[in-house]
Design brief:
About 40% of the residues lie in helices and about 15% in strands. It has 14 helices and twelve strands. Helix 2 packs across helix 11 and helix 12 runs parallel beside helix 14. The chain is globular, with a radius of gyration of 21 Å. The relative contact order is 0.17. It binds pyridoxal-5'-phosphate (PLP).
Length: about 350
């Protein structure tokens, strides 16, 4: 099987399992796990924050950050395709009692991003009739917008705009390292001046579990209270931290291969009749393509591809998503494109 379903499908490599097996461990809750402590220092330096906390998932990073930044009834501003809006089980409402204010990406801009003008338009006036605008969330890379990268100028514009309006700022960095590798901008530069941010170890970095949320000392102190309350406090978490440290050493630079493979797939798909995709829009490892004009439903295409040993996911509105990652080689990507060509020529609508 060529598994292009998601970069969450990676299996820990033999070397990562070795690192896990050899991890020095202690009690994370008492800050006595040496490997988790090392990861914490590493992430603080990488992302440019004072403190950080290991959590079981990226979702918990987002939910804790929102709950620390906001009071019930507050409003969180995010681009309309954001993960916090669509894919966290209503967590912001259920756990933090906040409202979400989607901002549409301005036409002609980078999909999944917005600018200072869009932010100012979304911010509520100070009125007792209105929810209070409190937090601005940015997703780097913007997942369902196409894995697009927020340019540095736009990050700064939104950060400064938020600051001028008295809003807190948070970066969902599920695929931040993809943005770092694709753009060449160091993570700490992208995140400078933001109040909180996190990276996921279980996506392109190839770990089985884990994410780390970073912020000021005071912010992480409060985050720990919710980590405890919501059952995210661990014990010998060095097992997970060792995998993450291994990934930071060995799985970051190679993300460039995933991006090259994604572009290769996009170029091959663009040549197929009825398949709509602009290869130039593929900046990282996420490849969304529209099969409406093939006359085949995305569900049919996905099941025909599965029968040919290629796993991809339906994304609604005629869209299919393929994701490149460390368990998919260049040669497998080319075979996946061949399978797609075969599906289109062999299947009648
Ligand atoms: C995957 C993802 C998350 C959630 O991370 P998990 O580790 O799956 O909980 C949040 N935001 C974005 C943009 C994601 O792609």
């Amino acid at each position: 099987m060529i598994n292009l379903f998601s970069d969450t499908q990676t299996r820990p490599t033999a070397a990562m399992r070795q690192a896990i097996a050899q991890a020095e461990v202690g009690d994370e809750q008492r800050f006595e796990d040496p490997t988790t402590n090392r990861l914490r220092e590493r992430i603080c330096a990488l992302l440019g924050f004072e403190d950080a906390v290991l959590l079981p998932s990226g979702t918990m990073c987002n939910e804790i950050a929102i709950a620390v930044h906001c009071r019930p009834g507050d409003e969180v501003i995010a681009e309309a395709s954001a993960h916090i809006i669509h894919a966290e089980g209503g967590g912001p409402a259920a756990l933090a009692g906040v409202m979400l204010r989607p901002v549409l990406a301005p036409p002609g801009g980078v999909p999944g991003t917005f600018d200072g003008a869009a932010l100012r338009e979304a911010v509520r006036a100070d009125s007792r009739y209105l929810p209070r605008s409190r937090l601005v969330c940015v997703e780097q890379t913007a997942n369902t917008a196409g894995g697009t990268v927020w340019p540095l100028a736009l990050l700064r514009e939104v950060r400064d705009g938020a600051r001028a309006l008295g809003l807190a700022t948070h970066v969902d960095g599920a695929r931040l390292m993809n943005a770092v590798v694709a753009s060449g901008m160091p993570a700490h530069e992208q995140l400078a001046g933001f109040d909180s941010a996190w990276i996921d170890f279980s996506k392109g970095l190839g770990c089985p579990v884990g994410a780390m949320l970073a912020g000021s000392r005071a912010f992480i102190h409060e985050a720990w209270r919710l980590k405890q309350r919501w059952g995210g406090a661990m014990r010998q978490s060095g097992i997970l931290a060792a995998a993450a440290l291994h990934a930071l050493d060995h799985h970051v630079e190679r993300l460039a291969e995933d991006h090259a493979n994604a572009r290769l797939l996009a170029v091959a798909l663009a040549e197929l009749p009825g398949v709509r995709i602009d290869p130039a829009s593929v900046q990282t490892n996420l490849v969304y393509f529209d099969v409406t004009d093939t006359g085949l439903s995305p569900e049919r295409v996905v099941s025909e591809l599965a029968a040919r040993g290629v796993c991809v996911g339906v994304f609604g509105r005629g869209l299919i998503r393929a994701v490149t990652h460390l368990d998919v080689s260049r040669e497998q990507v080319l075979r996946a494109a061949d399978a797609m060509r075969d599906v289109i020529s062999a299947c009648k609508p």
